[in-house]
Amino acid sequence: QKEVEQNSGPLSVPEGAIASLNCTYSDRGSQSFFWYRQYSGKSPELIMSIYSNGDKEDGRFTAQLNKASQYVSLLIRDSQPSDSATYLCAVTRNTPLVFGKGTRLSVIA
Amino acid sequence: EAGVTQFPSHSVIEKGQTVTLRCDPISGHDNLYWYRRVMGKEIKFLLHFVKESKQDESGMPNNRFLAERTGGTYSTLKVQPAELEDSGVYFCASSQGLGPSYNEQFFGPGTRLTVL
């Protein structure tokens, strides 16, 4: 059984639209939740962290966490072609991150 | 502030050879992690150092892998002898380990290892 599940995509959205990326996890004891963005051939870049239920906003990004449903999501408002990348969900109880396979996002100009 | 750096960026070796990967964490970060991504799979944890001590090495696949962090600064990961299934991208990450964002881990560019 996979520990962190993400739809692999590709998820295609038009420029200016809202992109919605979803992630579910199996470990109910998870405490910290992260979204990383990875461009092809580059390192994963931390873009959002969330630790408690609810929404957390940072610029065009909003992370949403629902621990009861074991669900975390990332919304990207006003999507730009430069947002085209693979988005990795990572979850942890303490320190080793457990990653999903990632969702490939394509923003069409 | 310099990010996490890794060397080499690519390595192509033959089965049975030895390869050593290096990671330099962000200055001041006590926590250093090694992860690996095998093609088609998710990134998976290998081990975690706090300063020079191995905090968690539960993800190390077998005793062909040896990680060190002498002096609590940079780390090396040696694979000896390399097997075909060791091919993948090896990422290093570091975190400060303090405050509310103690576990925010910052990744290096990775070393792409190909074993022929």
Shape summary of chain B? globular
Measure the end-to-end span of chain B: 37 Å
Structural class of chain A: mainly beta
Indicate the radius of gyration of chain A in whole angstroms: 13 Å
Biggest interface in this structure?
A-B, 22 and 27 residues
Contiguous runs where pLDDT drops below 50 for at least 5 residues of chain A:
none
Helical amount of chain B: under 10%
Number of strands of chain B: 11
Shape of chain A: globular
Helix content of chain A: under 10%
Quickly give the structural class of chain B. Answer: mainly beta
The average pLDDT of chain B is 94
Can you offer a commentary on this structure?
The complex is a heterodimer of chains A (109) and B (116). Chain A has 109 residues and is mainly beta. Chain A has no helices and eleven strands. The relative contact order of chain A is 0.35. The model of chain A has no long low-confidence stretch (mean pLDDT 94). Chain B is built from no helices and eleven strands. In chain B, a hairpin with a 6-residue loop joins β7 and β8. In chain B, the strands form two sheets. In chain B, strands 2, 4, 5, 6, 9, 10 and 11 form a seven-stranded mixed sheet that branches. A four-stranded antiparallel sheet of chain B has the order 1-3-8-7, with no helix packed on it. The mean pLDDT of chain B is 94. Chain B has 116 residues and is mainly beta. At the A-B interface, β4, β5 and β10 of A face β4, β5, β9 and β10 of B.
What key attributes describe this structure?
heterodimer; A: 109 residues; mainly beta; six-stranded mixed beta sheet; five-stranded antiparallel beta sheet; B: 116 residues; seven-stranded mixed beta sheet; four-stranded antiparallel beta sheet; 11 strands
Concise summary:
In chain A, 0% of the residues lie in helices and 54% in strands.
